[in-house]
Specification:
Length: 228
């Protein structure tokens, strides 16, 4: 396995994402070769992402922390099974999501939406660019009330849409990575993301407007532009 993961050294023209993947590949090979103490170095950059992925489903900090720890342990025990087809971070987050879903099923906390629900179809509607919630000026995001509004809005999304929104617009995974992590096709990711952003806009627009009219600018700066 270690030999299969070995790759040539990055060149001066290697993209940052390739450098990250190369770093992970090299560390994984060394861990599998016996340097087990390097595993923490491998997962350290992704600890927050794993926690947020678990929290996006569980909506409970303690449960999310436990699931994140379980996911890391499971990744360690199954590291030899990582084939490198996807990024290590995607594989790790997939484990966390599966662990979180298993906990929810066991506790019977929520009912799962079917991934085949007929309402999820392509739409010609172009919402104001809710993806630009990340583009709210830094000084605004630093305000406690705005951060709380964003957090509550995300928490209010149905699980099916919340997990896509968190992976795409919070963790900034691309469409292919999100699809791989959730085990769904890319078109379904795009459709759910569109609906999640529409829901976020509906929730946030009135509240932000009531606090400061200028905040509404981030809904319309790129209206009509590309979302995905």
């Amino acid at each position: 396995m270690a030999e299969r993961l070995q790759k040539k050294a990055p060149t001066a023209f290697t993209k940052p994402v390739d450098l990250i993947r190369e770093r992970d590949t090299q560390i994984i090979a060394r861990v599998l070769a016996g340097e087990r103490e390097l595993f923490h170095e491998l997962i350290r950059p992704y600890e927050k992402s794993v926690y947020l992925a678990a929290y996006s489903l569980l909506q409970n900090e303690a449960d999310a922390e436990e699931v994140a720890q379980e996911a890391v342990l499971k990744a360690y025990r199954n590291l030899a099974n990582f084939r490198g087809d996807a990024k290590f971070s995607t594989w790790l987050i997939t484990i966390a999501l599966n662990e979180a879903r298993g906990r929810l099923r066991h506790a019977r906390l929520i009912e799962f939406d079917s991934i085949d629900e007929p309402a999820e179809e392509d739409s010609d509607v172009t919402p104001a660019v809710i993806s630009d919630w990340r583009e709210v000026p830094n000084e605004a995001l630093e305000r406690k009330e705005v951060r709380e509004l964003l957090a509550k809005a995300i928490e209010s999304l149905p699980e099916t849409y919340r997990e896509v929104f968190v992976l795409r617009d919070v963790e900034e995974m691309n469409i292919a990575e999100t699809a791989a992590a959730l085990g769904i096709n890319e078109q379904l990711v795009k459709t759910r993301l569109l609906r999640a952003r529409l829901m976020m806009q509906k929730i946030l627009a009135p509240q932000l407007k009531s606090r400061r009219t200028g905040f509404l600018g981030f809904f319309s700066r790129k209206a009509g532009g590309s979302w995905l």
